[in-house]
Specification:
This protein has 306 residues and is mainly α. Helices cover 83% and strands 0% of the residues. The chain has one domain. It has helices at residues 2-26, 29-44, 48-52, 55-82, 85-88, 94-106, 113-144, 150-189, 194-220, 227-230, 233-252, 260-266, 269-281, 287-305.
């Protein structure tokens, strides 16, 4: 049953990633996070009685998770702001590697030799994708040279390379934080109920985002949203998807026979959905070639999960 719940979660998060990015195209990032989490919190607010029962220690643990998740969301959205979603998303396959190692160390999951082959294939896919993306960027910059001369051309090349490198670093940080959060989820679900986790997590993340957004407004000395931002319907859909998907994930982690590495690998379905849907929505270049490299990584993922 935990496998089915993880599959549904992965598909829903794939849609969530693209819709959240669409929302942040129309409205400030912190506002998108704040409002979507507030919508999700309102949907789960009926669980107040059981949430209060966790005590001070439980609240502190959920606060820690909220800080980690809020940080990874910001890094992830900043990455997508700087580079193509379909190029960055396959890098999330490193989560499988991180989860695989952590599962061996922390949860003493069985060591099987062919899983190491799967991890190696995943890395091969990542290397090939990065090399293809680097060459394509170089080709695009050379093509733009027909319209740029001298110093302008040099500035364009330098800026494009910086944005790509910045996006990759941001996205890798978000992937590492994501796996730390996933590790905490398993520990928490051995002690607390899914509703308790969601209540405090969504409450804290909403508060962080609203405080951050208001601070940004004060810093720039202007209100950064207008009436149309409240009508950004992508945000409300993200909130509903978030609360439903997380409930499925947390429920999956309560099963006694669940494998943390297995859940992490199945969650990579989100990568497939995000790359395909994001590539189509944003009309990103070379989508077919990127899917080929993604397929290589998926072979590795399947080998690891067997």
């Amino acid at each position: 049953m935990w496998i089915l719940l993880s599959v549904i979660y992965g598909v829903m998060i794939g849609f969530y990633n693209v819709l959240r990015q669409k929302a942040s195209d129309r409205s400030p990032i912190l506002f998108v996070i704040a409002l979507s989490c507030s919508v999700a919190f309102l949907a789960i607010s009926w669980s107040v009685p059981e949430a209060i029962a966790v005590g001070g220690k439980g609240v502190a643990l959920f606060l820690l998770k909220s800080v980690i998740v809020f940080s990874l969301w910001v890094f992830e959205l900043l990455a997508f702001k700087n580079y193509f979603m379909s190029s960055l998303q396959p890098i999330s396959a490193i989560r499988v590697v991180i989860s695989f190692v952590l599962s061996l160390i922390v949860f003493n999951e069985p060591v099987i030799w062919w899983r190491f082959i799967g991890v190696a294939i995943i890395f091969c896919g990542l290397i090939l994708l990065n090399e293809f993306d680097r060459r394509q960027l170089k080709k695009d910059l050379q093509a733009s040279a027909n319209f740029q001369e001298g110093q302008n051309q040099l500035m364009l090349q330098t800026e494009s390379k910086k944005r790509r490198l910045k996006a990759i670093i941001f996205f890798i940080i978000s992937c590492v934080l994501n796996e730390i959060s996933a590790l905490l989820d398993k520990f928490y679900m051995d002690v607390y109920l899914p509703g308790q986790m969601q209540f405090w997590f969504l409450l804290f993340v909403s508060l962080f985002a609203w405080v951050g957004f208001l601070f940004l407004c004060l810093k720039q000395k202007k209100w950064l949203i207008c009436k149309k931002d409240w009508g950004n319907w992508f945000i409300y859909i993200c909130g509903i998807i978030l609360v439903v998907a997380d409930r499925l994930l947390f429920t999956a982690l309560t099963y006694p026979d669940v494998l943390v590495s297995g859940v992490s690998i199945i969650k990579q379905l989100a990568t497939i959905v995000t790359v395909i849907l994001g590539g189509l929505v944003y009309k990103e270049p070379n989508l077919k070639q990127k899917l080929l490299f993604l397929a290589i990584m998926l072979v590795g993922i399947v080998i690891v999960v067997i």
